[in-house]
Amino acid sequence: MVTLSRRLLASASFVSKGARVADIGCDHAYTSIYLMQQGIAGSCIAMDVREGPLSKARENIRRYSLEDKIETRLSDGLCKLSIGEADTILISGMGGLLIQKILAGKPEVTKSVEELILQPQSEQDLVRRFLHQARFIIKEETMLCEDGKYYVSIHAVNTGKTPEPYEKKEAYIFGKTLLDRQDPCLLEYLQNRKEKYEGILIELKQQGKTETHRGYREMKEKLSELENALQWYGEKQSGK
After folding, report:
1. Buried b (16+ CB within 10 A) or exposed e, 143-182
2. Beta-strand (E) ranges in 86-232?
3. Could you tell me if 70 and 36 are in contact, meaning their C-beta atoms sit under 8 angstroms apart?
4. What is the C-alpha separation between 78 and 110, in angstroms, rounded?
5. Could you identify which of 54, 154, 223, 224 might form a hypothetical disulfide with 48, taking C-beta atoms 3.0 to 4.6 angstroms apart as the criterion?
6. CA atoms within 13 A on the CB side of 214
7. What is the spatial distance between Cα 236 and Cα 238, in angstroms, rounded to a whole number?
8. Entry pTM
9. pLDDT of the chain along its 240 residues, tens only?
């Protein structure tokens, strides 16, 4: 049996029972194998842009005798995926800008699936905004820290209707569902980042770089966003 890391398990846990999953950037196909072994997915298409990882994926699939349940495809993003072949698109281990590019690269396929399960390692705000523009509602998010790095998994469902945009930019930057739920891991992340950015601002001031310096202004803006997010926590606790 395959055992997934905590970050991969977080994304796999969002997959709907019996779904036909397109595992984009599958690497060695461990997530696809796990989904089949656990009886979660109905079938999987493990796709990767590189032949090396895909070859290793095929070896792993044969090792666990899942050739009839998991198909492999050499594909740049969604290029080799057609409408009607998958219910779920799962993408982990990529930057948010690349995830957005992959989903936008074949919009007819993206809009044909029932759910998107994404784990952007950066630029989460771009991904959340794209999901709303593509008429997906962000149903749930989880956040965890593994090996000193923070990971966010996003589960979005296709409604066919444009969702109401978030009112505050911090909801896109940090995740409205995480903020509303007062996720403890996000709180830890916010507090750590706030301390880090405050230290950077002090260093910049000591170097004589203040409001006239672009780096100082950008850092101050990031700090303001963190403080607004932390205030969100405080308002939730006080019932506002």
Report:
1. bbeeeeebbbbbbbbbeeeeeeebeeebbbbbbbbbbeee
2. 88-94, 115-120, 136-146, 149-158
3. yes
4. 8
5. 54
6. 0
7. 5
8. 0.93
9. 999 999 999 999 999 999 999 999 999 999 999 999 999 999 999 999 999 999 999 999 999 999 999 999 999 999 999 999 999 999 998 999 999 999 999 999 999 999 999 999 999 999 999 999 999 999 999 999 999 999 999 999 998 888 999 999 999 999 999 999 999 999 999 999 999 999 998 888 888 887 778 888 899 999 999 999 999 887 666 565
- Rounded CA gap, 195 and 201, in Å? 10
Which two structure tokens, joined as six digits, stand for 208?
């004589």
C-alpha of 227 from chain center: 23
How far apart are alpha carbons 157 and 141 in whole angstroms?
12
Domain 6-165 homologous superfamily, CATH: Vaccinia Virus protein VP39 (3.40.50.150)
CA proximity to 78, closest of 146, 26, 18: 26
Per-residue DSSP letter, 173: I
Closest CA to 48 of 62, 63, 28, 69: 28
pLDDT at 214: 86
Neighbours of 67 (CB within 10 A): 11
Listed as own residue / partner, the contacts of 208-211 with beta carbons closer than 8 Å and 24 or more positions apart are none
Distance, in Å, from the CA atom of 182 to the CA atom of 111, rounded to the nearest integer, reads 31
Strands 20-24 and 88-94: parallel
